[in-house]
Design goal:
globular, 24% strand, 26% helix
């Protein structure tokens, strides 16, 4: 079980679906709290993208803190079903959209204006350069208020097209808040 930290749903729990073989790596409470404290009022009335959504905890936290909508992209149907069930149990499924598929293929096709994009890909699988490439090809990137990328410190790379606004790194987790320079 994962606890929602702040906002209207603060203190409520969602199912994590986590076990050693699941491959899910939910963002720890301490990082979710630091992230949303850093984002502050940017979340209110925003459309929030939770890409590589896993448990959906980050996108649900955004809804709890006032996002008008969260869009979840998750490759695995079983995990996407977990997100849908969590949204339903919290009574916020009307403020969410769950898309099943490959983030890197779906992102360029999204037509909706997204304000904040969070990427939490599997660690050490080479996703960071692919995320940058996809963002640079996506015509909505210049309009993003914030981009957040979670990775392991072993794979983090900077990209000249993006400025790091905040670094919330600790241990085996690098969490960077970026903005597009273009």
């Amino acid at each position: 079980m994962l606890r929602i930290i702040g906002g209207k749903l603060g203190g409520r729990y969602i199912k994590s679906g986590w076990h050693k073989q699941s491959g899910l790596r939910p963002l720890a409470e301490v990082f979710r709290e630091a992230l949303f404290n850093s984002l502050g009022s940017f979340v209110e009335d925003a459309v929030f993208l939770d890409a590589f959504a896993g448990t959906g905890a980050v996108g649900i936290e955004a809804i709890s803190r006032g996002a008008k909508k969260s869009i979840f992209i998750e490759k695995h149907r079983r995990t996407a079903s977990l997100i849908k069930n969590n949204l339903k149990s919290l009574g916020v499924n009307d403020r969410a959209e769950v898309i099943v598929g490959d983030v890197l293929k779906i992102l360029p096709t999204l037509g909706e204006d997204i304000d904040i994009a969070f990427f939490g890909p599997p660690y050490d699988k080479g996703f960071i350069p692919k995320i940058y490439d996809t963002l640079l090809r996506w015509n909505r990137t210049p309009y993003l208020k914030k981009i957040i990328i979670q990775s392991s410190p072993r794979e983090w790379i900077d990209n000249d097209a993006f400025q790091v606004i905040k670094d919330l790194s600790r241990g085996d987790t690098v969490l960077k808040i970026l903005r597009y320079k273009g």
